[in-house]
């Protein structure tokens, strides 16, 4: 059985929930993050805080939580013309995708993660991709990641399992998953310390966390939290 995992960890809600999922499931878990010139680079600072808070709040997980790896992929931001890597308005494009889509981002993330996993003897790659509540990014789709799993396994000549625990659930269920894994403490860590807002705004605190409240990422996070909180009230 697979026992060691590498989590693509941005410092956002989804990747933090996936980290908790992996810590609950595997005996050894490491994390990997990428600086790709994103406008919301504040997430890179948040991820350090989230890791510290998880280690402090969950000693049984801290024993499993290994090294954190950070890579400079700023070249991706240099070749991308998107609202996540340039100071421009967020809008839909003629191809039906929002201009927050960074072409090749997840493909590169998983490729670099697989390289690290190969070197460190980690058998599982975990990502927070989802095609239930998402912005339509083609590199978040289940078929894309299944194909990538095959490609990485063949290219490394080593079995690589790509796990996406959020793939078929919405944001409300993601909040609920966090509570089921780590109770109110984990929910509070996600609310207080993770970052999702595309604009990198941490000046305004909402019930669901910090953010501008208007970008697509904030809207999805808010809607999910409201639905989750509503169910909790009636339970």
Automatic annotation (TrEMBL):
SUPFAM superfamilies with a match to the protein in the record: Adenine nucleotide alpha hydrolases-like (SSF52402)
CDD domains found in the cross-reference section: QueC-like (cd01995)
EC number of this enzyme: 6.3.4.20
Record note on cofactor: Binds 1 zinc ion per subunit.
Keywords, sorted A to Z: ATP-binding, Ligase, Metal-binding, Nucleotide-binding, Queuosine biosynthesis, Zinc
Gene Ontology MF: a single term: ligase activity
Binding site for Zn(2+): 197, 212, 215, 218
Binding site for ATP: 9-19
Domain of life: Bacteria
Pfam families tied to this protein: QueC
Catalytic activity: 7-carboxy-7-carbaguanine + NH4(+) + 2 ATP = 7-cyano-7-carbaguanine + 2 AMP + 2 diphosphate + 2 H(+)
InterPro entries per UniProt: QueC (IPR018317), Rossmann-like_a/b/a_fold (IPR014729)
Essential cofactor(s): Zn(2+)
Metabolic or biological pathway, per its Swiss-Prot or TrEMBL entry: Purine metabolism; 7-cyano-7-deazaguanine biosynthesis
NCBIfam families, A to Z: 7-cyano-7-deazaguanine synthase QueC
Family according to the record: Belongs to the QueC family.
Functional note: Catalyzes the ATP-dependent conversion of 7-carboxy-7-deazaguanine (CDG) to 7-cyano-7-deazaguanine (preQ(0)).
HAMAP family: QueC
Name under which the protein is recorded: 7-cyano-7-deazaguanine synthase
Natural source organism: Ideonella lacteola
């Amino acid at each position: 059985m697979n026992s060691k995992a590498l989590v693509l960890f941005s410092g956002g809600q989804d990747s933090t929930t996936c980290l908790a999922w992996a810590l609950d499931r595997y005996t050894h878990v490491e994390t990997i993050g990428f600086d790709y010139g994103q406008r919301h680079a504040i997430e890179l600072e948040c991820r350090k805080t989230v890791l510290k808070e998880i280690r402090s709040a969950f000693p049984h997980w801290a024993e499993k939580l290994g090294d954190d790896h950070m890579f400079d992929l700023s070249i991706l931001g240099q070749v991308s013309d998107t609202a996540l890597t340039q100071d421009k308005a967020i809008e839909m494009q003629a191809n039906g995708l929002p201009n927050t889509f960074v072409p090749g981002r997840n493909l590169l993330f998983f490729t670099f993660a697989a390289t690290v996993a190969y070197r460190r003897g980690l058998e599982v790659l975990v990502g927070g991709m989802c095609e239930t509540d998402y912005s339509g990014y083609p590199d978040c789709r289940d078929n894309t990641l299944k194909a990538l799993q095959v490609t990485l396994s063949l290219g490394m000549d080593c079995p690589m399992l790509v796990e996406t625990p959020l793939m078929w659930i919405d944001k409300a269920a993601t909040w609920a998953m966090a509570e089921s894994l780590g109770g109110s403490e984990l929910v509070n860590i996600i609310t207080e310390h993770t970052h999702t807002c595309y604009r990198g705004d941490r000046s305004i605190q909402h019930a669901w966390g910090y953010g501008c409240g208007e970008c697509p990422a904030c809207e999805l996070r808010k809607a999910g939290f409201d639905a989750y909180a509503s169910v909790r009230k009636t339970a």
